[in-house]
Amino acid sequence: MRAIFVMIRCELGRAYQVANHLMDEIQQTSEVHSISGEFDLLAKFRLDSDQDIGRFVCETVQPSPGIAATFTIISLNPFTPDHGHFGDSS
Question: Is the pTM of this model over 0.90?
Fold first, then answer.
């Protein structure tokens, strides 16, 4: 599994509807946060290692009702309080 993050710009007044749709209808959705700035939402998705990221975003996320634009961020290495950096020998 790997994580990707998608910043989402919503049509005016649709951020809550989009967030609910992502959580309810897309099983790979892990979290959705409302954010400030140019984008309205930040969504975290957990994908299988062999899943095509571009295809997932273009065919699953972007067609969701109320989404005007997206910006995708691919996670390289997760850091967590209980595990630190994967591969860290300390």
Answer: no
